Amino acid sequence: MEFGSGLARIRNNGRVIAAQKTYPCSLQMYKIPPDGEVTLAEFDAMAVERLKILRAVERHNLSGPPKGSDEWVAKIYEEFHKAKNFIISTERISSTKMHEVEEARRSDHVSHFILRLAYCRTEELRRWFVAQEVDLLRARFLHTSNTSSEIRAFISENNMYFAQITSEEFLQERENLLNGTYRISSGDQLEGRTFYKVPFTEALELVRSRRVFLRAGYAYVPDTELITLIASAYRTSLSRALAHTSRALPQLEDDTRLFKMLQDFDRRYTGSDFSSKKATSTSITPDMLNTLSAKAFPLCMRKLHDTLVSVHHLKHGGRMQYGLFLKAAGLSLEDALAFWRLHFTKTMDHDKFDKQYAYNIRHNYGKEGKRTDYSPYSCIKIITGSVGPGDAHGCPFKLTDAPLLRQRLAAYGVTTAASSEIAELASKGHYQIACQKYYEATHNNTIIETGVNHPNQYFSESMKLMALGPNAPTPATKVELTSRRSVLQSSQSLNTSLLTPSLSSPLTPSSSSSSSQTPIKSSLDNTTTTTTTQSQLTSTTDADFDEFDDLDMDFESLDASIEQHNAAAAAATVSTVIASTTTASAEMTSSAMASAAATTALASRGSATTASSATASLATA
Ligand code: SF4
């Protein structure tokens, strides 16, 4: 499929004709890689859009209606419609919008190949990508199955052939087909059905679930199950293509921009932006945190808050994760300084706090160092981040053993059934789905439709639901911030507030059990390697803490570290800059199908054009 020449035909002969010739149907098997021009910004945008689509499919597979059911398809399409992505546009066939359809189908095509590059690196990534892509095709096929001409076009375009049984064979096997075919229980349902006879190895999914009649090594597959055969063929061809691509991938490393962009693409955050620039207008104060942590914080932040309240210290990773979360939740810099000071100065003197920790907090708010206004961590970043012994940060659904997690959830008032379901999801690696279930269990079964992908999203959903608004929890005592002395004076009342939840919300099943007065780690984590008893905690010295805090004063390293974590976002920015400053060169050339050797040679000249070509070329492998 020559994408470049397709565009030429649009300009010369009219868009409708060209669109029909280039992409005859909305569904694709992505057998031929795209060839044409795409800016780096577009490259990035299309990849992110497809990633969002695949994550939506995964989410509905894990927590939605049964896969393949009408409800499952409807749920997935509901999300596609809401997000207005290119999947929907590929299906809008009308003479007036064919150019849009063409563009959407092109985005579908190109984005698939970009993600092949990002997801071919490891077996685990390949497996995830194949699973979601196959299910995406399944949903789209089932959604368009009413338009039989569309399906016929798809089958013919991809040279797929499924042998139909003859009418004689149909009559001969009629009884067997009636008895052996899933969801066909009467003669009426059998009439008008088309059956395909395929080697049983091509319909293993149907054979495994005993949904088709088998004879002499052949499966008799009704037309209603055709998608199973197509999905099986697609899975095989895509798995093979990804394995080939991964072998050619080292050649992409010559282009550092694209390599960086694709390297951590699977960890790319695709949800709302919770950086302070775009933060909501809500604001919170330190005296609300005790209550909010029990009622509106996700488990990761609740654990950090409880640890801080218990031991009056968090290590670097915990301070970063919790501090940035609080910033995006609406805690001002002054309040943040007061809050951290209040706790830290219980185990160290004020000078030490000012020298070693206050700078760090101001740094997070963009007031020191490079003055970058750092974004709070997304779920993916938290889940994939490293956690050492004694750290309180990270995702509890990933880091806590199932029995301990069940115990902790029970202590928070989650029912036994819900705790078991959550622990099972977590043990299978579905941490964000487990978190979503935890939200439902603690919020009267209210669902977050888009799933949980950011702690601040969890918090803002919870706040919306509780309709607390910025000032709803009545501050017991507003912390004075003008001087250290005033902080000291107010610390007692603030501490009292933090340790004694004052609100009783119906959304939290057991407010008593959620009290932050109980040091969660010391009471529940007694089987983990991070076990710390209360007596040990209170006797812990500054030196003990500082042993792990060597990063505190190395703020240049911190800058570099955070920048590395935000590589994906930075890459997008760089791409945009490059695209705007090298308008002539930041395009994928029509010779993108160059060989890997040619790609390396071209990339060495430093041209953005060749870099993009390299990507397309590798995707062909
Ligand atoms: Fe926090 Fe996300 Fe884990 Fe939930 S899934 S506990 S929000 S990191």
TrEMBL record:
Residues passing through the membrane, by range: none
GO cellular component, one term: alpha DNA polymerase:primase complex
GO molecular function, one term: 4 iron, 4 sulfur cluster binding
Keywords per UniProt: 4Fe-4S, DNA replication, DNA-binding, Iron, Iron-sulfur, Metal-binding, Primosome
Stretch list, region Disordered: 498-543
UniProt biased composition (Low complexity): 498-542
Keyword Cell membrane: no
Record's keyword annotation contains NADP: no
One Pfam family, short name: DNA_primase_lrg_N
Any GO BP annotation: DNA replication initiation
Cofactor: [4Fe-4S] cluster
All copies of domain DNA primase large subunit C-terminal, residue ranges: 291-459
PANTHER family linked to this entry: DNA PRIMASE LARGE SUBUNIT
Family note: Belongs to the eukaryotic-type primase large subunit family.
UniProt name for this protein: DNA primase large subunit
Originating organism: Hirondellea gigas
Lineage, top ranks: Eukaryota, Metazoa, Ecdysozoa, Arthropoda, Crustacea
